[in-house]
Amino acid sequence: PIDTHPSFSFLSTKVTTAYNPVILVFHGKVTIKVITKDIVFPFMAEQKKEGCQFVAKFTIIRRDFHVGSGSLVVSDNLNISLSVFAKKI
């Protein structure tokens, strides 16, 4: 339930380059409920006037984190879209 597990966390362990200089690869750990799994996903970084825009889309398998129990109605895939703007301070 959302009141027991209202969020998930992501801890980046490293960032590497990909085949394209605009695309980077995040390596890290995702925690949902009390389960932590390693994850790797590509993201685009675009320099903006005030900082940098990071955009990523990736999929995780909900059953890996015991989300939705054995429901056959809910898809096993959770599609995640991130858009983060980082500004120098």
Summary keywords:
elongated; mainly beta; 5-stranded antiparallel β-sheet; 89 residues; 5 strands
Please give a structural write-up.
With 89 residues, the protein is mostly beta strands. 0% of the residues lie in helices and 62% in strands. The protein is built from no helices and 5 strands. It has a 5-stranded antiparallel beta sheet, with no helix packed on it. A hairpin with a 2-residue loop joins strand 2 and strand 3. The model has no long low-confidence stretch (mean pLDDT 85).
Describe the strand arrangement of the main beta sheet, using strand numbers: 1-2-3-4-5
Structural class, by secondary structure, is mainly beta
The gross shape turns out to be: elongated
Radius of gyration: 15 Å
Helix content: under 10%
Main sheet, how many strands, which sense, barrel? 5 strands, antiparallel
Report low-confidence residues grouped into runs of 5 or more: none
End-to-end separation in angstroms reads: 37 Å
**How many beta-strand segments?**
5
Provide a count of the helices.
Answer: 0
Q: Tell me the β content.
A: over 45%
**Could you state the order of secondary-structure elements as H and E?**
EEEEE
Mean pLDDT: 85
